[in-house]
Amino acid sequence: MVLLSAAAASPQALSVGVKGGVPLGDAFKIASNVSAGRSYFQNTKRYTFGPMVDVRLPFGLGIEFDALYKRLEYGSTAGVISSLTKGQSWEFPLIAKYRGPSPVVHPYAGAGVSFRSLRGLKQFVTTPLQTSLSDKPSELNESFNKGVVLAGGLEVKALVVRISPELRYTRWVEHGFRDALKLFGSNRNQIEILIGLTF
What we know:
- There is one protein chain.
- The chain is 4% helix and 64% strand.
- With 199 residues, it is mainly β.
- The chain has one domain: Porin, CATH 2.40.160.20.
- The strands form two sheets. It has an eight-stranded antiparallel β-barrel. The chain has a two-stranded antiparallel sheet with strand order 2-12.
- A hairpin with a 4-residue loop joins strand 8 (105-126) and strand 9 (131-134).
- The longest helix has 8 residues, at 2-9.
- It is elongated.
């Protein structure tokens, strides 16, 4: 109700657009110790993108909501058995922002929460006799996760579009993936360079 009231009070207060970027680290952490006879590798696509909504409030305050999409892919080998896992990650950050006063370039900082849902998971396990398919990978620890978000960047207005390069850090509460031997797991620290375009 607060967001709708703010947007209704000022038609220019609500902006929609897209946000995309690349991570500065790996999606998974892989131990170098392979004494257990199993080794992992990752082939995650290094991009994220999705729609965003930005609500501008008085006194330089604002609220941003994103829906960001990522592809995930990893695999493992253990003797003559190998596996390949593919899936999708949807992240939904909700961030409170403060924009500094400036005529053209507005520095901003924000903090909030994010929710992540792992969808469309498929694990292919290959043995000398057959290949089987499962929608519940053995390394899956938590398909729904939450985290804390910190962000900082600049907002530049160019004609009808606002361009917002940003550095964003997310700390996830749980490992989305983790194997029983702790040789492999999803990285709970996520750092990204993102660029937003809003109209």
